[in-house]
Write a structure and sequence with these properties.
Layout: E1 2-9, H1 16-32, E2 35-39, H2 51-57, H3 65-77, E3 80-89, E4 95-102, E5 108-113, E6 119-121, E7 127-129, E8 142-144, E9 149-151, H4 161-169, E10 174-176, H5 183-201, E11 204-207, E12 211-213, E13 219-221, E14 225-227, E15 233-236, E16 243-250, H6 251-260, H7 263-266
Helix pairs in contact: 1-3
Length: about 280
């Protein structure tokens, strides 16, 4: 089966209402070009690093504005709409960085909570402690859709290849990594990571990204991208501003790549031995 998929690039601000309007406009654009699967970036609902400001706009899943808007949009356009993620208030006071997938009837098919927390200190002075605010997810997710099996990830998850290998082994033909990558890490690693996840799993990778300088002051890398199972970049956006990137997804290409290099079948279990430390001052050969 061949179908069109789209990655929507945004520059979300701090107001969920405005972000929902931007999401709707861009998703409609993608659907008008024939996309039946459309993905938005991580933190579609709001990019807001101020904790007090974030707390003011937080809602639970049942009352969240982006969740409601995406459900209605998917039904209106008769598409599968994947909200890359938005912040969802949890009962224990923590927050989930949660992705949603809605079907053409507007119903929620599944959700996925980002598993790996972005706790890093970068060379340019940026320091992030996502785990101080967000509760990490505990389950990988593969959705069996009418046109493909879809595996989920969010942003920092892309640096943990075992997550996507697990999903590919479960049949995922498309892997997703919607993101809000920092400019520094994006310039160094973004394309390499996406292409690596595609190559090592013989799968398409679709990654909608946040792009540009946001209202809260942070800068994200953009370059929303769709990568084919042989590692070729099929479509890519620039590094700032809104965009819609679209590519044809042909599942026969997944089968062909996995037949040429059947590493999903050829993997073997093994044990790890730690060699004893060399005697002090000596060398063994």
């Amino acid at each position: 089966m061949v179908f069109k998929a789209a990655a929507v690039q945004m520059c979300s601000g701090v107001d969920p209402v405005k972000n929902a309007e931007s999401m709707a406009r861009l998703v409609r654009d993608a659907a008008s070009q024939g996309a039946i699967y459309v993905q938005t970036p991580e933190m579609t609902g709001a990019v807001q690093k101020d904790r007090a400001g974030l707390a003011e706009i937080l809602r639970d899943e049942e009352t969240d504005l982006i969740v409601k808007a995406a459900s209605e949009l998917a039904k209106e356009l008769k598409i599968h709409l994947h909200v890359g993620s938005t912040a969802i208030k949890l009962a224990d006071g923590k927050i989930a960085n949660r992705a949603f997938l809605f079907g053409p009837d507007g119903a929620k098919i599944t959700s996925y909570d980002k598993i790996h927390m972005f706790d890093v200190d970068l060379d340019n002075g940026e320091s992030w402690r996502e785990s101080a605010v967000y509760r990490p997810g505990e389950r990988a997710v593969v959705a069996d859709l009418p046109f493909a099996k879809l595996g989920f990830g969010v942003c920092y998850d892309v640096r943990f290849p075992h997550l996507f290998r697990t999903e590919a082994m479960a049949g995922a033909e498309i892997l997703t990594t919607p993101a809000a990558f920092t400019k520094q890490t994006g310039e160094a690693h973004w394309e390499i990571l996406l292409r690596a996840r595609a190559i090592e799993n013989g799968a398409y990778v679709i990654s909608a990204a946040q792009a540009g300088v946001h209202e809260d002051g942070r800068e994200t890398f953009g370059h929303s991208m769709i990568v084919g199972p042989w590692g070729k970049v099929l479509a890519s956006a620039g590094g700032s501003g809104e965009a819609v990137v679209i590519a044809d997804i042909d599942l026969e290409a997944v089968k062909a790549c996995r037949a040429k290099i059947p590493n999903l079948k050829n993997g073997r279990d093994f044990q790890l031995d730690i060699a004893p430390q060399l005697a002090k001052g000596g060398v063994t050969v």
